[in-house]
């Protein structure tokens, strides 16, 4: 399997998978890193690794998965966080390669200088990446729920950081086709990319991620000094994946409109908790954003619970001019609002309200009655004031016309 991947033999890879080869068992951290270094290196990828490490690389420099993670974050942009740069992965990775690095430091052979330079590059990249992500944590999370105590948070954090190093499953990837897809895209192997896109889960998300990676790599290739067709080639690959994403959305929308809208706002844990809608916007995939499904979702998010399909615009305008007409408007039920995403604070507020309603039904009914009475009183007061102002304006106009003799 490794030879078939290195030599870009799609048919052989397909044949091996059809005959029972498990990619989950095959793909390990060591083998994936070997794929990045054994295959003919993409010049654009090598230049990107050099840029994210901010230094000149030795000719025989071996890229690490942490380097690849930094490149993916750079290409995806925004607040995207690759799994290769997370603390859990770093613990596993350092445990796998710690012995070889320590032996490399003590060796005095001809390759010791190269290994030392690679270690220094890795240490510098770790420090820069850690600083960058610490800045992200401080700036991108201004609102944090204060419901959990410090003890609960520390226990939860300690539980997340526990990694069983001896477990062989920690050295494998839960979704190997996702990792192989990104490898094929970064190595500029379109046929292999399309093959891995057809396997595994979250096809729409994979198509959007591949579209974004190809588009960003094409832009970086265009900025480089090398004059070739790589930039246009990557742009064509990006358009191909974008077309696949739009076709998937169209097919999903035809089968079930509500589920298609949920698919757009579903948080993808394997892709930095992003959503298909965010990925499409970051990829500047206009046909995807302009699709009927996306536009209906955006309209529902803008209108909120107001049911515009049953409320024509004249009712809304009438409610603005005559406030009591607000009672004529119809609103959506919770089931109809299930495809609309909620923020964490709104979700927490909804959960608290439901618990409060469960324990204090009588008090809530009384409160609703009081609020309804206050609302009706306010509406009547606004209506009286509005009527008084209208009559005053008309009276003043008539007096003015009579004075002018018109």
UniProtKB/TrEMBL annotation:
The chain crosses the membrane at residues 375-401. Residues 145-161 have a biased composition (Basic and acidic residues). It comes from Hucho hucho. Its main location: membrane. The lineage of its organism: Eukaryota, Metazoa, Chordata, Craniata, Vertebrata. This is TRPM-like domain-containing protein. It is a multi-pass membrane protein. It is found in: Membrane. Residues 1-89, 117-291 form the TRPM-like domain. It comes from the Eukaryota.
């Amino acid at each position: 399997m490794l030879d078939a991947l290195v030599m870009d033999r799609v048919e052989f890879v397909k044949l091996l998978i059809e005959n029972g080869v498990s990619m989950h068992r095959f793909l390990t951290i060591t083998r994936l890193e070997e794929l990045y270094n054994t295959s003919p290196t993409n010049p654009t990828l090598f230049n990107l690794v050099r840029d994210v490490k901010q230094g000149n690389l030795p000719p025989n420099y071996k890229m690490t998965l942490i380097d690849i993670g930094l490149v993916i974050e750079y290409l995806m942009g925004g607040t995207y966080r690759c799994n290769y740069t997370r603390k859990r992965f770093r613990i596993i990775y350092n445990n796998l390669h710690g012995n070889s690095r320590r032996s490399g430091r003590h060796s005095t052979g001809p390759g010791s200088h190269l290994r030392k330079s690679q270690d220094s590059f890795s240490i510098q990249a770790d420090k820069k990446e850690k600083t960058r992500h610490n800045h992200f944590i401080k700036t991108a999370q201004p609102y944090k729920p204060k419901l959990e105590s410090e003890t609960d948070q520390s226990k939860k954090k300690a539980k997340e950081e526990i990694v069983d190093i001896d477990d062989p499953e920690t050295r494998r990837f839960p979704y190997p086709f996702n990792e192989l897809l990104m490898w094929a895209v970064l190595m500029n192997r379109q046929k292999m990319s399309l093959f891995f896109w057809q396997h595994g889960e979250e096809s729409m998300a994979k198509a959007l991620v591949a579209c974004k990676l190809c588009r960003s790599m094409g832009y970086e290739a265009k900025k480089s000094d090398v004059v070739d067709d790589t930039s246009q080639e990557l742009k064509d690959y990006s358009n191909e994946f974008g077309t696949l994403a739009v076709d998937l959305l169209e097919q999903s929308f035809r089968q079930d409109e509500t589920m298609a809208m949920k698919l757009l706002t579903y948080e993808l844990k394997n892709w930095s908790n992003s959503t298909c809608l965010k990925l499409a916007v970051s990829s500047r995939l206009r046909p995807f954003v302009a699709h009927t499904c996306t536009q209906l979702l955006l309209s529902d998010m803008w209108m909120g619970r107001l049911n515009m399909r049953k409320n024509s615009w004249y009712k809304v305008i009438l409610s603005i001019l005559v406030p009591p007409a607000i009672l004529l408007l119809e609103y959506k039920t919770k089931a109809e609002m299930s495809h609309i995403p909620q923020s964490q604070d709104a979700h927490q507020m909804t959960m608290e309200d439901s618990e409060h309603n469960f324990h204090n039904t009588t008090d809530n009914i009384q409160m609703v009655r009081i609020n309804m009475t206050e609302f009706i009183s306010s509406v009547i007061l606004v209506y009286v004031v509005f009527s008084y102002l209208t009559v005053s304006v008309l009276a003043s106009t008539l007096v003015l016309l009579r004075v002018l003799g018109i």
